[in-house]
Amino acid sequence: MKVAIYPTILSGGSGTRLWPLSRRDLPKQFLKLFGDESLLQSTCRRLANPLFESPTVIGNHDHRFLIQEQLAEIGITPRHVVLEPVGRNTAAAAATAALVVAAEDENGLVLLLPSDHIVPDADAFAACVLKGVPAAEQGALVTFGVEPDHPHTGYGYLEIGDQTGEAWTVARFVEKPSQEAAQDYLESGRFLWDAGVFLFGAKQMIAAFEALAPGILRAAADALAKAHRETGAMTLDQEAYESAENISLDYAIMEKADNVRTVLLRTAWSDVGSWSAIWDVLNKDEAGNVAHGPAAINVHGTTNSYAYSDRASVSIVGLDNVVVVATKDAILVASKDSAESVKDLVAALKGGEETLRHTRVYRPWGWYEGLASGERYQVKCLMVKPGGKLSLQSHRHRAEHWVVVQGTASVTLGGETRLFGENESTYIPIGAKHRLANPGSVPALLIEVQSGSYLGEDDIVRYEDIYGRLKDPKDL
User: Fold this and answer.
1) Which residues does the UniProt record annotate as the domain Mannose-6-phosphate isomerase type II C-terminal (predicted)?
2) Whose C-alpha in 165, 230, 280, 360 is 20 to 30 A from the C-alpha of 453?
């Protein structure tokens, strides 16, 4: 009997090393860094193979609409969308994945993989996974390793032992090494980069948690039993899930278990974990430079560098080995050799607005973008998708003026609904129940001017919402 493989994509990361493009509310897995599809979408495409069942995505509760929209955009219906109310690293997510699959197929295999890696050859990836199936069917917890081609200090390593068939025993796991140690690993031929991809029987992983990390398993099981199910997703119970230890699967299980095997991932691979890694992947000019993004970038007398801009024109003169990333509200300039340290920079910014969200903020109905602000006023551009509809709502502290600049807007105010076309406007008084919708077939663009004593996004009272945001005040 053929054993089914159930892919589970981990999409809870924050991608801080790719700041300022990657931010808490729009991390790297949702960014279209290498073409017309995001890293999450590319990962889902990679799994569109008869070898795999439809994927489950485990992600951050705050990203639920991004996950659902990006999968719908490429025509993929997920098996499940499981939302974490708080981040608890990969161990709790792995326990959750095993429990979800075991409830449906006690003999099923779980393929656990990140949402934000690049593996350009989907067929080669599937072939490598298939080579790991015999070991997983025999009860092993299988991890996949990549043969290193240079002494990388930003990856974890696996030291391999004896080989049986396509799998090796794992002598030990090594966290990110020094440059000297990484060079020794490369020369020894006995070490692989840890790709962060796992294949295991659901019941075997549950047994491993029962033996090695029972508290995490109990927390995951309790969080699933009490999960809230709505709008095509299940949100794990926060109190139960918070009780799980915040630890990686490697630390909690893989480094302690005696039935771990590794299979070589014989395909191009990158975790695109830093700006230097993105530079590695992209095509370069004769001087080794990458100019990336929608804005104009001018490079003169510069070598081996990466530049990105989404708004302003950027010029770089007389530099070597640098990263320049410019967004509307933040600019990063760094040595490419220090790209891994961007994560430390973001931590030092201590949750400042520029680390949390872009000036353009996505919502299930479209997006809004801040244009200008001052004392008692704020100006935004709103885009409402065709068929999109904001909640029926009111504000305690602000009034709003809307001007339609593209498309058609349906405005409900005080129980009356009226259509507005381009160059028409309306006024929403403080405290008035109102709703904005787009009944047309093209995106509706509006300029919104807010005025009042408090202009925060949390000044909102919802009465109706087609996206199920009434029960959770975090869903803005």
Assistant:
1) 352-465
2) 360
Do 28 and 274 form a contact (C-beta atoms < 8 A)? no
Q: What is the CATH number of domain 359-464?
A: 2.60.120.10
How many CA atoms lie within 13 Å of 121's alpha carbon, on the beta-carbon side?
11
Name the pTM for this structure: 0.91
Residues in the chain: 476
CATH fold, domain 5-264, is Spore Coat Polysaccharide Biosynthesis Protein SpsA; Chain A (3.90.550)
199-253 pLDDT, tens digit each: 999 999 999 999 999 999 999 999 999 999 887 899 999 999 999 999 999 999 9
Which two tokens mark 96?
Answer: 């959750």
